[in-house]
Amino acid sequence: MEMTFRWFGTGFDTVTLKQIRQIPGVTGVITTLYDTTPGEVWSREKIHALKEEVEASGLRIAGIESVNIHDAIKIGSPDRDQYIDNYIETLKNLGEEDIHMVCYNFMPVFDWTRTELARKRPDGSTVLAYSQAAIDALNPETMFESISKDANGAILPGWEPERMAIIKELFEKYKDVDEEKLFENLKYFLEKIMPVCDEYDINMAIHPDDPAWSVFGLPRIIVNIENIQRMMSMVDNPHNGVTFCAGSYGTNRKNDLPGMIRALKGRIHFAHVRNLKFNSDDDFEEAAHLSRDGSFDLYEIMKALYDIGFDGPIRPDHGRMIWDEVAMPGYGLYDRALGATYLNGLWEAIEKSNK
Ligand SMILES: [Mn+2]
To answer: How far is the CA of 355 from the centre of ligand 1 (A)?
Structure first.
C-alpha cells in the first residue's frame, strides 16, 4: 500500500503540501481540480500544473478524488453522451499525465450525508455525526442550510451552493430513477469509459454511498457486497473496481468490513480507513482511528488489506477536530495525521509478524 492524504488544493485547503510531506510515511496526495464542475473537461494544462505543484513539494499525485459524474449520466437523460465524452477526455488527459486511479461516486443529488458537523465528544473534540431521527425530521433544503452554517467557511465536497440552489429541480429530475435504473445508467457509463481506462491503465474506484442506505427516498446502490459484486460483474473488467471506504460501508452494521475486503481481492483500487462510534444502529459519530475509540477493529481491516496483497493508495479519512484547529469539518491536519501514523503502525506490525 501507499500511504496518502487527501488534499483539496491551494486556496481550498487549510492544510499545506509542506505539512503533508512532514507526516511520516505519507508519500502521495489524493487531490482534485476543486474549481471544476461535473461534466467539464479537465484540461491537460491544468492537470499538469497541479502535478508540478505537488511534485515540487516532494510528494506525488497518487490518484484523483473525485472526478464527479454529471447528473445527466446518473439520470440517463438524452444529453448524457456528451458528458460521457467529456469524462473520457478528462480520463485521457489524466492518463497522459501518468495518473492511474480515479475515485468517483454514483449517488443521486447528495454526496455523503451527515446531520451534525461538530458534535462534541467527551474529550472535547468535535466530529461529524449522523442521526436517522434528525434526518427524518428534516427536509433536504433545511439540511443544506444547517450543513453550510457549520462548515467553518469551507465549501464541502458534494455540498456546493450552486448545486443546492437547484435542489428541488434535481429531485424532480431523479423522480423516475429507481435502483434498477441507476444500475442500468452506471453500466452504460462504465461500458463507455472502459476502453480509455484500458488504454491508459486507469483504475476506476467507485466510492460507496454514505450512509449505505437510501436517504430522502433517493435510490442508493453502492451499499453492500451483493451490489458491488453485481456492479463488477455487469462490466467485468479489472479497471472497474472500488474504493473500499470503511467509514461508509461501516454505517450499515450488517456489512462485515474485513470479509468484504477479502471478497473484493484484486478489485480494491483505493482504501479509506477510519472508525465510527455507534450509539445505536441509526446514530453514529466519527471517532478517532484507534480501534478502541470506536466500533470497528482497525487491525482486522488493515490485516484483510494486507492479506489480499493490497498495493494501491490508502488514506486516513475524516478526522476529529482537535487542538483548536479550524478547518473543513473532517479534513483538518492533526487528527488525520494521527490516523495515518496509526495505520502505518498497524501495517508495519502486520507485515513484520507475517515475515
Ligand atoms: Mn470515504
So the answer is: 31
In angstroms, the CA 94 to CA 47 distance is: 7
User: Number of C-alpha atoms within 13 angstroms, CB side, residue 209?
Assistant: 22
For the chain, the domain total comes to 1
Catalytic residue numbers read 207, 245, 272, 317-318, 331
The CATH number of whichever domain residue 90 belongs to comes to 3.20.20.150
Q: Which domain holds residue 47?
A: 2-353
Question: How many whole angstroms from 277 Cα to the centroid of ligand 1?
Answer: 16
How many Å lie between the centroid of ligand 1 and the Cα of residue 207?
7
How do residues 35-82 score in pLDDT, each as one tens digit? 899 999 999 999 999 999 999 999 999 999 999 999 999 999 999 999
What is the value of pTM for the model shown? 0.94
